[in-house]
Write a structure and sequence with these properties.
Order of helices and strands: HHHHHHHHHHHHEEHHH
Helix content: over 70%
Strand content: under 5%
Radius of gyration: 22 Å
Shape: globular
Largest sheet: 2 strands, antiparallel
Number of strands: 2
Structural class: mainly alpha
Number of domains: 1
Length: about 350
């Protein structure tokens, strides 16, 4: 099946899933009393100071991401923080506009501007995703303990107990993941050599691809030269996700009402559900992200439908619009376009695949 056809099919399936979810949400008696007028009033009267703080937090998050990427890249090359910042802005704008196909824009742009291998930047992207997933899981686990939940229903007590047990499991798995990353960094050569001996049952092409990806990932882990470096990379991730949760909190505060009264830990909990919703995203409009926010606010914190919907819309605007606007300005300044950035990503990804094929031959 052609790549473009697969994308259209994937978008259609996501759209159908979102329609089903929204229809399911709208079926309750509470949602049948939904008022579009109250929704518009909440959005129009959002407090500008809190909104300004949320927008500033969004911008600061890209600076922290750029700093962390430079930290990861340091063993290969001392990169320009300004170049890395532009890479973050271009990359996330591409994801917001085009969905997951835009994921490769960041490593492609940075690789081209800093004249480093695309494979090394792809490894950093994978490492970044691991760090962010771990941070989000820890935030969810801590929120369960610091934010009292009052679930309703016949099985509420059992559900809450299982959530707390799951939180303990998440913390344990997180600690194991961090230790495994450090262990792999310190013993990567021995692990890769032993793995190459045991991968002989795989086809040559697959074996070459696995080996190349493993070596690229080990190269990305070069940032962990010692336990101090590991602590520094974890600290920058901690700061990043405190800022991300604060963006949600300030956005909700700007709306007032039930959403504005939520604690910082509660908004971190909502952010976890929003991240789960990223699995179902439509390019340019989101969808799953907003549904995740609405579900958490309505089903867990009992925020009225208008408040939950306005919070979901506004938090998407705060995250999406400033990034896209700044990206358009920088694209004009550099004489680039999203089409050209996409072409860079495709060219470098194709070049990497050719390199794997050459190794297999």
């Amino acid at each position: 099946m052609a790549k473009s056809r697969r994308r259209w099919l994937g978008s259609a399936l996501v759209l159908l899933a979102l329609i089903w979810m929204i229809h399911h949400l709208a079926g309750s008696a509470t949602w049948r009393q939904f008022s579009a007028h109250r929704l518009l009033s909440l959005l129009v009267h959002a407090h500008p100071a809190w909104l300004g703080g949320a927008v500033a937090g969004t911008g600061l998050s890209y600076v922290i991401r750029a700093y962390r990427w430079r930290f990861f890249l340091d063993p290969i090359r001392r990169a320009s923080l300004w170049t890395l910042l532009k890479g973050q802005i271009f990359g996330f704008s591409a994801i917001y506009l085009f969905g997951r196909p835009g994921e490769l824009v960041r490593p492609a742009y940075i690789a081209k501007r800093e004249r480093v291998s695309f494979a090394s930047q792809l490894a950093i992207l994978i490492l970044e995703r691991i760090y962010d997933t771990v941070a989000l899981a820890v935030l969810f686990a801590l929120a369960l303990y610091f934010q009292p939940l009052h679930l309703q229903g016949q099985h509420a007590a059992r559900t809450l107990r299982r959530m707390h047990e799951g939180a303990l499991l998440v913390l344990a798995l997180t600690a194991a993941t961090v230790l495994t990353l450090a262990w792999f960094r310190f013993y990567s050569r021995a692990v890769l050599a032993r793995g190459a001996q045991r991968w002989t049952f795989l086809p040559a092409r697959v074996r070459a691809a696995v080996g190349r990806l493993s070596r690229a990932f080990a190269e990305g882990l070069e940032v962990i030269e010692n336990w101090r470096d590991l602590a520094a990379s974890l600290a920058s991730t901690l700061v990043l996700w405190v800022i991300n949760a604060s963006v949600f909190w300030m956005t909700f505060r700007s709306l007032g009402g039930a959403a504005g009264q939520l604690s910082w830990w509660a908004t971190g909990f909502v952010m976890f559900f929003a991240a789960l919703g990223l699995v179902l995203q439509l390019p340019g409009v989101g969808g799953g992200y907003q549904v995740g926010v609405i579900v958490a606010l309505r089903e867990i914190f009992r925020v009225p439908p208008e408040g939950a919907t306005s919070a979901a819309i506004l938090v998407w605007i705060v995250i999406f619009v400033p990034c896209l606007a700044l990206s358009l300005v920088l694209l004009v300044f550099e004489g680039l376009s999203f089409r050209k950035l996409g072409a860079w990503a495709e060219q470098q990804a194709a070049g990497r695949e050719k390199g794997v094929a050459g190794e297999a031959g």
